[in-house]
Amino acid sequence: MVRKSKGFRSRTRKKLKQKLKKPTITKFLQKFEVGEKVLIHPEPSSHRGMPFPRFKGKVGEVIEKRGECYMVKVRDGDKEKKVIVAPEHLRRVV
Questions:
Q1: Nearest C-alpha neighbor of 82 from the set 93, 69, 94
Q2: C-alpha dihedral sign at 44, 61, 87, 68
Q3: CA distance 85 to 42
Q4: What is the 3-state secondary structure (H, E, C) of 21-84?
Q5: From CA 34, how far away is CA 94, in angstroms rounded?
Q6: Collapsing DSSP states into helix, strand and coil, what is residue 85?
Q7: Measured between alpha carbons, how far is 69 from 49 in angstroms, rounded to an integer?
Q8: Is residue 33 a contact partner of residue 87, using CB atoms and an 8 Å limit?
Q9: How big is the chain by its Cα radius of gyration, in Å?
Q10: Pairwise CA distance, residues 84 & 49, whole Å
């Protein structure tokens, strides 16, 4: 009997489906300020700094910058969680 894979991207075929067009380079070079509201929207073509699929579609606040990534405070149920996310997986909320 073969053991079922339980990797980071398991059971995410439809959740992390790639759109037809490729992302532009500016998406990877975005800059965010501390206190700015952002939407977590994973970019399937980049595995680097991808948040856990549970946080897809959540709106959070940028707390700090860590290297090239950002720490985002997100509300998950009754708890406040901190997620480290690369800029290509974030969008500004206006």
A1: 69
A2: negative
A3: 9
A4: CCCCHHHHCCCCCCCCEEEECCCCCCCCCCCCHHHCCCEEEEEEEECCEEEEEEEECCEEEEEE
A5: 15
A6: strand
A7: 7
A8: no
A9: 14
A10: 7
Task: Look up residue 76 and give its amino acid.
Answer: D
Amino acid at 13: R
Q: Tens digit of pLDDT for each residue in 43-76? A: 988 889 999 989 999 999 999 999 999 999 999 9
Kindly state the DSSP code that residue 88 receives in the 8-state scheme. G
Q: Which residue has the higher pLDDT, 14 or 2?
A: 2
Give which of 52, 43, 55, 54 is closest to 16, Cα–Cα. Answer: 43
Find residue 74's DSSP bridge partners. 60, 81
Residues in the chain, total = 94
